[in-house]
Amino acid sequence: MVTDGIGRPHQPGQALFKAILSEDIDWKPFAALPAPVRFAVIVGQPSDEGPYVIRVRVPHDVKLMPHTHPEARTR
How many distinct structural domains can be found in the chain? Predict the structure, then answer.
């Protein structure tokens, strides 16, 4: 469904899809990850129902161990 001929709905509460520039990403530490690793929520909210997108920035000398999650993370 095109809302105004310019773009398409993106997330609930957002009228249009929008680009997110790398310089606008709010990188933060995350307690479950080693100190130099940074975490950013790009779209949505991981704690809420519905889709979301996160990014994790890992320095080249940091290793993250393989792990699993109790719920499905992809559909």
Answer: 1
In whole angstroms, what is the distance from residue 36 CA to residue 23 CA?
19
Q: Measured between alpha carbons, how far is 21 from 5 in angstroms, rounded to an integer? A: 23
Q: Is the pLDDT of residue 3 over 60?
A: no
Asked if residue 39 has pLDDT above 50, the reply is yes
Within a domain: 2: no
- 53 Cβ neighbours under 8 A, 6+ residues apart: 41, 42, 43, 44
- Neighbouring CB atoms inside 10 A of 54's CB total 14
3-state secondary structure of 43: strand
Task: State the residue range of the domain holding 54.
Answer: 20-75
Residue 27: the pLDDT is 95
- pLDDT value, residue 1: 42
- Please give the single-letter amino acid code of residue 12: P
